[in-house]
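Saturday, quiet lab. Running sequence design on the structure tokens for the scaffold JK sent over.
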């Protein structure tokens, strides 16, 4: 009986030390994405991985992220077909291979971080826009633009800019190592654009009809939300933090 227990312990111990089945989520070069901040030690290539099982996260029931900075000139052998795990815990963790077409746009902070008087002016402007639209005789006129969905933070995958806090209250993201306020590094979104965000339609989709939602990557974050990953601007080697909205 003791030998059986020892064998079982060795099996469990071996399983615990096996590498986790990580899936490649994104690979970004600073030469292609100007807003991508510099990595530690002159690294210019960011690789983002996550585990397709929530049970492997730090809490035992949440997401496990793995960000790796590399130097592009040191990468020699490139796999044309990266390995994929045979079993996943959630299909939304498996991305459809995509080629990036970055577009640089101007963005503005989430409304909850604006000064109170500025938010009041924005609210008054939006109400005036809505009243004008209601009184308009043009039934085909476009819906009035709103700060949150049309002008401040675009939907979709993006580098830099500002994080949206539309699901929770705004929360400061400070580095847990040096307490420096962290900057948004990368956003992984469940969709690219939809009928409520026509102002952010990608250039290559300008002639296409409005989608209920566009999800070319087939990635699903939480309940069709977005994952915001933050990095320390003082030292990019410090551990990242993240929030799901």
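Result came back. Writing it out in full:
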């Amino acid at each position: 009986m003791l030998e059986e227990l020892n064998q079982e312990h060795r099996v469990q111990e071996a399983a615990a030390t096996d590498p986790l089945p990580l899936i490649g989520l994104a690979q970004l070069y600073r030469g292609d994405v100007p807003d991508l901040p510099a990595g530690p030690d002159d690294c210019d290539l960011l690789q983002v991985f996550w585990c397709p099982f929530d049970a492997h996260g730090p809490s035992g029931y949440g997401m496990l992220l793995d960000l790796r900075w590399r130097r592009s000139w040191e990468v020699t052998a490139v796999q044309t077909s990266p390995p994929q795990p045979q079993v996943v815990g959630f299909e939304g963790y498996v991305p459809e291979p995509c080629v990036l077409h970055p577009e640089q746009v101007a963005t503005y902070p989430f409304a909850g971080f604006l000064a109170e008087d500025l938010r009041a002016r924005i609210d008054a402007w939006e109400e005036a826009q809505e009243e004008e639209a209601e009184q308009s005789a043009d039934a085909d006129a476009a819906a009035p633009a709103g700060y949150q969905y049309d002008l401040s933070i675009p939907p979709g995958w993006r580098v830099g800019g500002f994080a949206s806090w539309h699901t929770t209250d705004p929360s400061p993201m400070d580095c847990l190592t040096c307490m420096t306020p962290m900057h948004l590094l990368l956003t992984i979104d469940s969709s690219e654009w939809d009928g409520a965000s026509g102002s952010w339609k990608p250039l290559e989709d300008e002639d296409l009809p409005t989608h209920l939602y566009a999800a070319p990557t087939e990635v699903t974050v939480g309940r069709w939300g977005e994952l915001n990953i933050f990095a320390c601007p003082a030292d990019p080697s410090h551990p990242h933090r993240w929030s799901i909205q």
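Notes for JK: The CA atoms of residues 101 and 227 lie 20 Å apart. Residues 1-18 have pLDDT under 50 and may be disordered. Ask whether to fix the surface positions before the next round.
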